[in-house]
């Protein structure tokens, strides 16, 4: 056989594709590949949706924080049900103000301590609830990141075991008979890595964003408690000053009246 004829025969040989490997897989391998494709779609949907959700929450927080900085009286705010639409910061403000007005005691130092205790407890509960919202769906994404490589490895081991088992039943074992089953089995590992590699980068990025937003939320709650306490102290000082001004002055001793 001359060289041009050999090249012509090589050109006529069809190169294997991923669909060829999929067709050579056993039933378990095909089921695992299909499951990994579904997991990949779920992972990308979660990552894109979570990124958009966190970006929206951060935008709402920054917008509300700028509006709150222009507000003169924090304790006079009454957001009500609108707080959910205004973002996590607004929910914390509504919870803190509602907790402060829940105890209608006298304007004394003890009353202030009781009220601030209610405010701090409400802020802690609010931060915990918002943290759950920030970290929602992250467990699902983390499970896909962890489970996809193992699922692909399971398909590979199963496929190789099946390929060697079928070879044992044949009279002669050749590489041409063994290669299709092994290549189909290795497809599951490739599919598992294709699912896990993008997901682990997305998971780490989203987890960092969640931790950043949670830290900002905790700092905002702390500054919110300080601002409420400061407003109450100023109000008490103003009330005390007005009482001093309205108190009638007593006549001096020896004035002659």
Write structural notes for this entry.
It is a single chain. The protein is mostly helical. It has one domain (34-237). The protein is built from 8 helices and no strands. Helix 3 (27-69) packs antiparallel against helix 7 (138-168) and helix 5 (88-102) packs across helix 8. The longest helix is centred in the C-terminal third of the chain and has 72 residues, at 175-246. The radius of gyration is 34 Å and the shape is rod-shaped. It starts with a helix and ends in an 11-residue tail after the last helix.
Q: What does the main sheet amount to?
A: none
Oligomer: single chain
Task: Spell out the helices and strands N to C.
Answer: HHHHHHHH
Low-confidence stretches: 1-13, 252-257
- The beta-strand count equals 0
**Helical content class:** over 70%
Q: In one word, what is the shape?
A: rod-shaped
Question: Which range does the strand content fall in?
Answer: under 5%
Which structural class should the secondary elements be placed in?
mainly alpha
Distance between the termini: 140 Å
Whole-number total of structural domains: 1
Descriptive tags:
257 residues, mainly alpha, MotA/TolQ/ExbB proton channel family protein, transport, cell membrane
Topology diagram in text:
Blueprint: H1 3-12, H2 18-24, H3 27-69, H4 83-86, H5 88-102, H6 109-134, H7 138-168, H8 175-246
Helix pairs in contact: 2-8, 3-7, 3-8, 5-6, 5-8, 6-8, 7-8
Domain MotA/TolQ/ExbB proton channel: 114-218
Membrane topology: Multi-pass membrane protein
Transmembrane segments: 32-52, 139-161, 181-206
